[in-house]
Give the backbone structure.
Amino acid sequence: MMDKAFFEINPARAVIAIGGEDRASFLQGLISNDTARIGDARAIFAALLTPQGKFAHDLMLVGEGARYLVDAESQRHLDLLKRLRMFKLRSRVTLDDLDAEFVVVQLFGGDSLSRLGLSAEPGAARALGGGVVFTDPRLAALGARAYLPRATAEQMLCDLGFEAAAPGSFRRLRYSLGVPEGSEDLIPDKSILLESGFDEMNGIDWQKGCYMGQELTARTKYRGLVRKRLLPVRFEGPTPAPGADLLLDGKDAGEIRAGDGDLGLALIRLEHLDALTGSGIDIGDTHVTARVPDWAKLPELA
């Protein structure tokens, strides 16, 4: 299947636009990555955190002329716009909801990147069909992401030789690689970036100035406070419900965060990682095993 190039319109994500001459400095104090990296030829991955340093929104941002195009969760993008307007104050910034105009499209499998004229460098971007397309800034193995006009996106991609994927195919690809996205996999006001792989997925710039929630993020890194990690898991048996506890000899070993058939994500206590990646454990009638993806860099526990 993955020898072919597929597209999947992602209804779980919506596009907004951030314009105005202060857009870079405005966002620089709010998100976890460096806005200086955003351009018409470069997309970035970032997070907006709560003041306490917990996950609020995950974002993709790319330049389009005098504005940034940004995608966030469809069901929560109005919350994102509301939060941004709260911080706007006197900044010369415009905030527009483009959900009626653009769709977010995932493009993956086969020769997707070369077919789109993209390199395998995460974040490489270019204009396409009245919108923009870019190599996923988290991992090139995820393929490409595009913001395209709703009226023409599907036909244009078919003309480029892409086939429509079965709904949920991209989510299963993410889960197989251990990549979370949105509040389906991350818990607003609770999840921590370093437990969720944002550092290795190019979502944090450690050299930029202060941003909202930076203190907890930096303290977690430099004091070695990461004791849990979101990792891909495989289920043999019924898919456990999100929030189901992973218990090892009566001890808390983690919890299931999401599942789709035999694939899912779990937040695992690193002290029990060997058991989860080895023989695995049972949740009722389901056997659960974890895997550390090649891109992940886990801390050494004392």
Remarks:
- The helical segments are 23-28, 77-88, 112-115, 153-159, 169-177, 214-222, 273-277.
- The mean pLDDT is 95.
- Residues 227-290 form one domain.
